Amino acid sequence: MSLPADSQLRNPVSLQFHQGTVLYLNGLVGGARQRYPKREWQRVLANFSLVCWCRPDGRRISAAIIGPCPVANVTITEIFFDCDNTLVLSEELAFEACADLTNEILESRGIPDRYTGEQLIQDFVGQNFRGMMVSLQAKYGFEMPQEELEAFVKKEEDKVIAKLEAKAQPCVGANEELEKLYKAKKYHLAVVSSSALRRVQASIKKVGQDKFFDEDMVFSAATSLPKPTSKPDPAIYLHALEKCNKKPEETVTIEDSKSGALSAIRAGIHVIGYVGSYPGDEKKVEMAKLLKELGAEVIMKDWSEFQDCLSQIERLEQASQPTRHRLS
């Protein structure tokens, strides 16, 4: 039996009653799993309080969810930024370099298909090169030895960085908003990207954004984790939260892609969906719809809207009140 909670909400809760076992799942902070085969009340202290009374045979007598626990005073204190096509117009340049290497890999395996940078963006936007290669192997049914993969990852990083250092530009309006945030000192700021750390650092340095972020506050799914990964895996966001000593509910991130938004949402973080870097109104509308459906709370079409978007999320967070759901 489950409460009617949407899995995309920040505080999803599921209860199961099976042979006297009560499971508390998906709590925003930690969650818990407790077994109580006898009749007794148990209070699980996380973001939700669970009170349940069960018989040993699993038949539920009474159960209630009281939650979220008092968090009315939670305010936004942390802002995370995706890098590629959110802060820096880098995706097109990066995928141009990726296309050459991708086609080299396909040709070496006798696969006739070839990619342009634009086609790669359509299929793999939001993923780093390692993630793209995993997807490519699955699509075409071949395997790359680990040594070969690592060699191509390094080649891709070098080629992309060279292009970024030559041609990268900031997303329109991003630098101005970063300047305001940096001077106000109301929020802690960090970059959370799928891309390799060297590439992210080269991007923000080229466009003059490196001064807004402490050097150790730039996080990379490809580099910062013990095991490299890529969005939509939430690992990099969870890592950033830990390093910044922040909770998901006090954090907002700006993401432009499906994989990036899913990564943040799965970590329980508020998401502003940014569509300003997509070409043409039709694509912007399409991506706005997709990001909203995934769980982005606000859509931002231009960086000039950022302060208003952030205020909307802060109002939503402050309006959260404890609720009580009764199962009978």
Automatic annotation (TrEMBL):
Pfam families: HAD_2. InterPro entries: CbbY-like (IPR044999), HAD-like_sf (IPR036412), HAD-SF_hydro_IA (IPR006439), HAD_2 (IPR041492), HAD_sf (IPR023214), PGP-like_dom2 (IPR023198). One of its GO terms (molecular function) is phosphatase activity. PANTHER family: CBBY-LIKE PROTEIN (PTHR42896:SF2), XYLULOSE-1,5-BISPHOSPHATE (XUBP) PHOSPHATASE (PTHR42896). NCBIfam families: HAD-SF-IA-v3 (TIGR01509). This is Unnamed protein product. It comes from Aspergillus oryzae.
